[in-house]
Task: inverse folding
């Protein structure tokens, strides 16, 4: 979908549809008032009769409003003006995109970018409008033999900015919003694919595709034989029960001077997590195809960074495997040696994410990183603690944690920090090895991060547990593309 910015009066727009807001209770926004004046009170009359109350999520489509030059005027409910915050704004934008698409307006001029949102400027409103509209119109139908097609789909939205001087910043917001939406879409598409299609080999091929599209991206794919040679015993312990070979994908994006230390993004790429011998219950096990969302978000973030030519260096490290039970599979109680040399007692084969990530983290050392951020659907406990709203964040370096928390707030893709205190480490004591791979039911998100922290001692590191945020369940089942917006915001902030 195409977006542009423009400045001008709503009543003068020659377009299929002009979109303006109505606040609860029955109060016209400024642009709506301008249309009301030229139409000699047409809108205020409707509103007075109660045709639209202005509640959040309401919409009323009007045809041939007197005095205007647009085919239609779409009134969108914005709720109470003083309650209008980030979430409400995104809801209004989504509703608008869906309405326009379903009612046959192929293009529209929206004045919703002129709503006042506390603490946010026009750049933010334009960028969020692009991201939220594209999110609302996203469909994953590549595997349906009959696709429901929209007869007259929405093709172009022109977003209004207050003055001509705001046009350049508006255009920048559109460029960045589109690039983020492209990264989010790539992440969702990969994550929504079933595990019989999206295997570790498929993910590696997708990384190679990125290298083909962007000259600035270089990709290497490591096979099991080399992992063996290097001593990645933890990663191999997970893949041994599967017929699909594991891969370790490394991506390098060099946007800056070659001696600038890279930011490393590590993504958990378990393309299906059956639990292994510690097998999971049958209910909802299909959702474990989403256990590669961390990997997909690293690929999505790379696509966005390359599209925007960000002036920084980024390395991506993606350990990818299935977690399956067969006659060759790792058994509870087995002890393996990780790449770091630390031995691990695998008490539960379903705690596999940390096993593949620990070798990936040790592998990061050779890139002499500025910071390392891992992204993983790591613990069910994180879903219990924070739900689908916030990503769990744990870190060994508070300045990095704060940068990520801020990036989450700014992008609307929020994270919440949990403690990584030494007190929790004792839960990982093993009588037979250096460390156990599980720490019991209590504080399971924290003990998982404690486990990872033992392999992240040599650099500044943060862990993002996206188990609750990476996909939605129930009737809206599907990947969200999170935390691509957070990660890209962090990268953008690092460029400034
Ligand atoms: N991929 C799962 C975590 C998960 C579960 C994410 C449900 C989203 C929804 C992970 O590999 C796992 O199985 N974790 C276990 C760890 C436990 C055995 C210590 C969990 O959270 O139950
Ligand atoms: Mn598991
Ligand atoms: Zn898993």
Result:
């Amino acid at each position: 979908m195409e977006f542009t910015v423009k400045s001008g009066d709503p009543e003068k727009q020659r377009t299929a549809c002009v979109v303006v807001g109505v606040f609860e209770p029955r109060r016209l926004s400024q642009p709506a008032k301008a249309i009301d004046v030229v139409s000699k009170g047409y809108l205020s009359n409707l509103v007075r009769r109660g045709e639209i109350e202005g509640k959040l999520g309401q919409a009323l489509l009007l045809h041939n409003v007197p005095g205007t030059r647009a085919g239609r005027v779409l009134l969108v409910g914005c709720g109470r003006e003083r309650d209008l915050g980030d979430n409400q704004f995104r809801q209004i934008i989504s509703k608008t995109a869906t309405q326009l698409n379903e009612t046959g307006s192929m293009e529209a001029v929206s004045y919703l970018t002129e709503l006042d949102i506390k603490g946010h400027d026009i750049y933010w409103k334009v960028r969020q409008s692009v991201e939220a509209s594209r999110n609302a119109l996203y469909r994953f139908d590549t595997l349906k033999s009959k696709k429901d097609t929209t007869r007259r789909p929405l093709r172009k939205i022109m977003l209004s900015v207050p003055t001509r001087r705001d046009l350049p910043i508006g255009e920048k917001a559109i460029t960045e919003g589109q690039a983020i939406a492209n990264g989010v879409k790539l992440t969702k598409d990969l994550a929504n694919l079933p595990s019989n299609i999206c295997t570790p080999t498929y993910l590696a091929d997708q990384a190679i595709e990125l290298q083909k599209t962007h000259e600035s991206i270089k990709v290497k794919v490591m096979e099991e034989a080399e992992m063996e040679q290097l001593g990645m015993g933890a990663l191999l312990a997970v893949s041994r029960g599967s017929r699909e070979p594991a891969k370790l994908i490394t991506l390098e994006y060099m946007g800056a001077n070659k001696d600038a230390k890279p930011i490393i993004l590590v993504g958990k790429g378990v393309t299906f997590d059956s639990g292994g011998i510690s097998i999971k219950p049958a209910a909802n096990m299909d959702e474990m195809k989403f256990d590669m969302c961390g990997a997909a978000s690293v690929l999505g973030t790379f696509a966005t960074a390359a599209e925007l030519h960000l002036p920084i260096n980024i390395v991506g490290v993606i350990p990818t495997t299935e977690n399956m039970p067969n006659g060759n599979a790792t058994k509870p109680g087995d002890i393996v040696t990780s790449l770091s040399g630390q031995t691990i007692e695998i008490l539960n084969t379903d705690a596999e994410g940390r096993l593949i990530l620990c070798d990936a983290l040790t592998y990061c050392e050779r890139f002499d990183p500025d910071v390392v951020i891992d992204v993983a659907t790591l613990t069910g406990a994180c879903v219990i603690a924070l739900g689908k709203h916030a990503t769990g964040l744990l870190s060994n370096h508070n300045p990095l944690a704060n940068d990520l928390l801020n990036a989450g707030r700014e992008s609307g893709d929020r994270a919440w920090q949990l403690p990584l205190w030494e007190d929790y480490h004792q839960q990982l004591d093993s009588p037979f090895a250096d460390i156990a791979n599980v720490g019991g039911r209590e504080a399971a998100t924290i003990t998982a991060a404690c486990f990872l922290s033992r392999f992240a001692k040599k650099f500044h590191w943060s862990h993002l547990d996206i188990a609750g945020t990476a996909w939605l369940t129930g009737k809206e089942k599907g990947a969200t593309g999170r935390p691509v917006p957070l990660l890209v915001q962090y990268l953008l902030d690092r460029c400034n």
In short: The pocket of BES (ligand 1) is lined by residues 273, 291, 348, 350-353, 377-381, 383, 438, 444, 467 (CB under 6 Å). The chain has two domains: 2-165, 180-495. The CA atoms of residues 37 and 91 lie 28 Å apart. The chain has a mean pLDDT of 98.
